[in-house]
Amino acid sequence: MQVTDSWTTRLWTQVEPTYRAILAHPFLTGLTDGSLEQTRFAYYLAQDAHYLRDYARALAVVGAKAATHADTGLFARHAAETVAVELALHETLLPQLGLDPAELDAIAPSPTTTAYTSYLLAAAYGGTFAEGVAAVLPCYWIYQRVGAELAGRGSPDPRYARWIDTYGGDAFAATVSEVLALADRIGAALAPDESARAARHFATTSRYEWMFWDAAWRREAWPV
Q1: What are the catalytic residues?
Q2: Residue 15 Ramachandran class (φ > 0 left, ψ -120 to 50 alpha, else beta)
Q3: Among 206, 189, 89, 203, residue whose Cα is nearest residue 140
Q4: Contact (CB, 8 A) for 120 and 54
């Protein structure tokens, strides 16, 4: 059972308003009521492909800074699983959307995708192990919480239901539990200044999660 004053509990408390805003976003409500336009979902998948490739790199860098072989191995395994999940999802969803993978590859990373992945990589390379863990944690945790919430609502569109099931299932929940346990273990020993820096990373990348879905909703493009 998670201790009520654990490090991750304190991290989550500060982003609760961001999480509520995410759940209320029309992109996500459109997934569950089936009203989300296919073009917006296709844009999201293209940006997600760009994002996950750099996210896997960030996980590998974070793992390289771990103090134990076990923690390094955990992030190395998760980096590989991230790529595998991306491929499996796209192999399933793209044909159902009538899309060729080459079409998605032709879509350039958006301003938000570029900013988010750049921030992640900078935090992973430039920060401590704990700071890197905090920066990558929202992508794990928010997706798991969102997936679980949306799974309870369901979706009349089987394509959107497939996406929801990926993040709302037991397998992904187990993966997230591993990272939360690691985060609480290292967070308990942090000095106040390092803990504060890590918390800022966690809050920032949580906001980027909202921005990522919002960019897909708007089909964001570079202004010039």
Answers
A1: 139, 209
A2: alpha
A3: 206
A4: yes
